[in-house]
Amino acid sequence: MEPQSVIFLVIFLALMALAFVLPTLRRQRRERLREQERDTLPGAPPVEEEITTGAPAGTVEAPEVPAPARPVSPPAPPPVLEKPEPTAGRLVRLRARLSRSNNALGKGLLALLSRDKLDDDTWDEIEDTLITADVGVDATREIVGKLREQARVEGTASAADLRAMLASQLVAALDPTMDRSLRATPHHDSTDGRPAVVLVVGVNGAGKTTTCGKIARVLIADGHSVVLGAADTFRAAAADQLATWGGRVDAEDVRGPEGGDPAAVAFDAVKRGTETGVDTVLIDTAGRLQNKIGLMDELGKVKRVVSRHGPVDETLLILDATTGQNGLEQARVFTEVVDVTGVALTKLDGTAKGGIVIAVQRKLGIPVKLVGLGEGPDDLAPFEPAAFVDALLAE
Ligand SMILES: Nc1nc2c(ncn2[C@@H]2O[C@H](COP(=O)(O)OP(=O)(O)OP(=O)(O)O)[C@@H](O)[C@H]2O)c(=O)[nH]1
Predict the structure, then answer these.
(1) Which ipTM score applies to this complex?
(2) Which of 20, 113, 196, 225 could staple 278 via S-S, CB 3.0–4.6 A?
(3) What angle (nearest 5°) sits at the alpha carbon of residue 303, between those of residues 212 and 203?
(4) Is 288 among the annotated ligand-binding positions?
């Protein structure tokens, strides 16, 4: 064979060998990549990205590896349901929260009542102390007037006796005969087997959503079932906040589109609660300023529309205790728009003005049914006048 032919033959054989080896190398690479892909943990960047990143700009390369399926996240674990604390004795458990913020009142009054001589100046100081604690001017005058009279009739009394007399006057001012039960369960006469409906109203930031969540826990702790209606379509996060509260104790929540009609959401929530046969539907409403007439009208509409299912059983006004006497004016406006049947006074842990409870009841003539004593999920207590006054006067 001629040397030229030998060279051609060698080149030909070399080309043939390449044609055979290259696909094999490609196949091996593909298999390596697949193995890598199998080893990739969920959440790591997909292999596809690694391959394409290095391609020169403008070149279109046929993908050598089929696009891997997106890493699938493991299914979310079922929510861990919480077991709320029983309601009995909560005010006693939370007593320290009250006395911590009010002990200035307790200490101050005891120091005054311990004076050897209870002259006019001392009585004035006792009055001032109670007014400073937000008991209200009229209520304070009445309470101190009765206390003075009692002290005079009973002659000289010890500081401890006077303190006990003052406590009983304060309890009397809170009218312990008022019905403070929350009309939140179908056992209540008016419900006819449908869920009891609780409408929660109040100015923004008073603690409506939080209190709705806390009440749901109270009801569930007592063995009832609850649907939450997120009729606060005004504040975007409120519905999420309510859903979170519900999720923790397995209470379904009903919501509508952001900025939607609150009355429609409230109506749907009651409908849903009736269909699913729950005991209670709790409706959270938007925070409304009393001077925004349109918003107050809207609240009236919510109540009217919900009433198509049957009367609202409890309209609970949420009042922030730290707003003091200003809160009272807000409260009065609410009572004109909706028939408020109970008051929940929140943030009593954050004020030295616990006397506001007396002022609220006196001004509105509506019982304080619940008190909020902290941000914790079970920091809501049924209101009990004697236990409250005892904590208020603690030293
Ligand atoms: N310390 C304390 N904080 C509370 C209490 N109740 C509610 N809060 C806090 O008050 C803040 C406002 O509560 P929300 O429930 O969002 O008030 P809201 O009335 O629903 O507010 P809007 O939706 O804006 O109308 C939150 O930070 C709550 O944790 C309480 O009893 N004590």
Answers:
(1) 0.96
(2) 225
(3) 50
(4) yes
